[in-house]
């Protein structure tokens, strides 16, 4: 099975998992990335079963609209029944690294509003310890060098993601060589660096359910 087949399988499993939870006025939070794109395409098959969506990126919003699925501004909805999104890494506690697609800030915002966060990922994302994937950090442009110096003090090797400006007009530093033994502590430490908007550790608010696409089928893990 190819990686795309695993991503498709986990995305389909997510639609099957959330469908019974949805009511006519439910709002579904939708993530960003290639796995999330498969989820959007399968979500369209049940678009009559819920009211609409909130998207974590302009790209996902456009894909949803192309299927005729309503996309709302987060400030105009009362709550989000479930948020479905991918990840770059997940550890056994369902603490994640996200941000490979540069959408980490809106992803974290929508996840924070959701009753339940369902993470969809192929087995290549499963790691015992977070940090092999360079940690994305969204930074206010003028603070890029300040934040880079502070990240070095935390043991990282920050690399400027050239040519990328986020939906919020900020830049991204990808931090290499972190072995994240204490995800919550590091997430808080990076949040406290002046100039940081968001970092890609999702540990203060981990996923509630992980649907992991494996060669032996889709496996479900709860936090
Ligand atoms: O940028 C993100 O956080 C995405 O969810 C990313 O981590 C997963 O992207 P993929 O589904 O294309 O691997």
From TrEMBL:
Signal peptide region: none
Q: In which pathway does it act?
A: Carbohydrate degradation; pentose phosphate pathway; D-ribose 5-phosphate from D-ribulose 5-phosphate (non-oxidative stage): step 1/1
Q: Name one GO cellular component term.
A: cytosol
- What GO terms are given for molecular function? ribose-5-phosphate isomerase activity
The EC designation for this entry is: 5.3.1.6
Q: Name one Pfam family in it.
A: Rib_5-P_isom_A
The active site consists of 107
Do you know which InterPro entries this protein is assigned to?
NagB/RpiA_transferase-like (IPR037171), Ribose5P_isomerase_typA_subgr (IPR020672), Ribose5P_isomerase_type_A (IPR004788)
Family of the protein in this entry: Belongs to the ribose 5-phosphate isomerase family.
* Role played: Catalyzes the reversible conversion of ribose-5-phosphate to ribulose 5-phosphate.
| NCBIfam families attached to this UniProt entry | PRK00702.1, rpiA
What name does this protein carry? Ribose-5-phosphate isomerase A
């Amino acid at each position: 099975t190819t990686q795309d087949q695993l991503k498709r399988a986990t995305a389909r499993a997510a639609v099957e998992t959330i469908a019974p939870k949805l009511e006519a006025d439910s709002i579904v939070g939708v993530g960003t990335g290639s796995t999330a794109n498969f989820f959007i395409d399968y979500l369209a098959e049940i678009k009559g079963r819920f009211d609409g969506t909130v998207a974590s990126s302009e790209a996902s919003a456009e894909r949803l609209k192309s299927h005729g699925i309503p996309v709302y501004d987060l400030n105009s909805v009362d709550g989000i029944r479930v948020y479905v999104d991918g990840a770059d890494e997940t550890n056994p506690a369902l603490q994640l690294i996200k941000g490979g697609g540069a959408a980490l800030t809106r992803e974290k915002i929508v996840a924070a509003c959701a009753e339940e966060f369902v993470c969809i990922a192929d087995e290549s994302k499963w790691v015992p310890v977070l940090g092999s994937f360079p940690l994305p950090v969204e930074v206010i442009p003028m603070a890029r060098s300040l934040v880079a110096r502070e990240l070095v003090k935390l043991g990282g090797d920050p690399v400027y993601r050239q040519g990328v400006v986020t939906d919020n007009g900020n830049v991204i530093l990808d931090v290499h060589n972190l072995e994240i033994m204490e995800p919550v502590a590091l997430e808080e430490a990076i949040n406290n660096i002046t100039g940081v908007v968001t970092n890609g550790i999702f540990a203060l608010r981990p996923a509630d359910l992980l649907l992991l696409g494996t060669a032996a089928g889709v496996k479900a893990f709860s936090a």
